[in-house]
Input
Amino acid sequence: MPVIKVRVEGRGKMVKTTLENIEDVAKSIERPTDFLMKYFAFELGVQYAVKNDKHTLGSARSADELADLLDIFIDKFILCGSCNNPETMFQCKKNQLVLICRACGHKTIVKYPHRITDYILKKLSSEKKAKKPKTVDKEDPVLLLKNLWKQYPDNPQIVSQAKAIQKQNKWDSEHFIRVIFQSLFDKDILSAFDQKLEIYKLFKQDSEQFYRTTLICIEELCQSESTILPSISNIVEQIYQKELVSYTALKDWQDHPNPDIDKTIAHQIRASTEPLISGLKPQT
Output
């Protein structure tokens, strides 16, 4: 994790502290930037603002002071309550904030009475509801996109029209990729697979979140359509060759099964893909 870098600007009542690399810090612990900034603001009793990608606190604060607060945040909202591993993710369940450990699978209920706990719960709850957004003209979003692939063979038109649908439905980037995947791949995933991969690649994002979302979608498809399980190694190999997943994401996915997937299916997937992934070399 990078060391927090700050820059104090202004004087008197106009003084403020810019956290120059807070997005990198948040990325390293796999938490949204606004969660960290809101936490700092609540702890220090100051205003938090973001403008032109600059994240500021409304007072003069040192890097050491913020680092001490960050240590508390990591202890309360990152580390697994069982194995103390930082590889965790949030889940909102029955109005409780839960940490799911990708290393040991343990679920830790966060019992920390703080305004940031309420903020995170509210944000996660709203995102959970947004997973079923309103669609254009009450049409099935997957069907909308399936029709789009047939209507617009020109790549720039495909991208612009798909993003227009995304904007109208107010999908975030992760939900958008999920709908794209579901509109392209079903139980007949291997039918015209190369052509479908080329369309999917038009929406590729060079981020670990994109790679993880792609792998999660594949697992979810295996769970709903078990007939594709015998082909899973071939599918994973081809998406890797098309650079639609990274070596790092594959290794992490192989080592940390998705807790929302049936354990038997998750085991079958990893048993089938283990020889392939073990033989891969990092992409250059």
In short: The radius of gyration is 21 Å.
